[in-house]
Design a protein that fits this description.
Length: about 170
């Protein structure tokens, strides 16, 4: 795994977000597109891939996935998928992934995690260390460590667990 500072990928991430946000939001009624992942976190280390969060009404999730596939995206294999989450990638845009999330589902954590890290430089430092420690390990080991870290951030005091802070994260 090769890691770079998120700032080195900022122009590409900004361009991809600016390109796809209006296309998706105008094509999928009541959708919301946000930039998530390490390239959306100040000071984070990243593999350079860009993740976009596409939130849709739960009743429209399957239709939204189909609409995005019509843009040339395909379902990413070997990732978790259920009726509320689907990851898609675009083969001709290496490193671009869309997380299609049902509104109100547990997968809204993508936004909460991004915002928690953007609000706490120590969490970013710990996340970066986790990534550096994973160099040379298996993808399964890295994913397990990352999952544990994300859960601790979302459940711990540094996650700003009070309702007011959580409401601000969604804004």
């Amino acid at each position: 795994m090769r890691l770079v500072e998120a700032e080195q990928c900022k122009a590409n991430a900004t361009d991809l977000f600016a390109k796809w946000k209006p296309i998706i939001e105008s094509s999928i009624p009541d959708s919301r597109v946000e930039h998530i992942g390490s390239t959306a976190i100040a000071g984070a280390l990243t593999k350079g891939d860009v993740d976009l969060y596409v939130e849709v009404p739960a009743s429209a999730h399957a239709d939204a996935v189909a609409a995005i596939q019509a843009f040339g995206f395909s379902v990413k294999h070997d990732t978790h998928r259920d009726s509320e989450l689907c990851m898609l990638e675009k083969p001709d845009q290496d490193g671009l992934a869309l997380q299609v999330v049902a509104r109100g589902s547990k997968y809204e954590f993508f936004l909460l995690f991004r915002d928690a890290l953007n609000g706490d430089a120590e969490l970013v430092q710990r996340y970066n260390q986790l990534k550096q420690d994973a160099i040379g390990s298996t993808p399964e080991h890295y994913r397990a460590q990352k999952t544990s870290f994300i859960e601790s951030v979302l459940q711990g005091p540094s996650a700003h667990a009070d309702k007011k802070s959580r409401a601000n994260w969604r804004a």
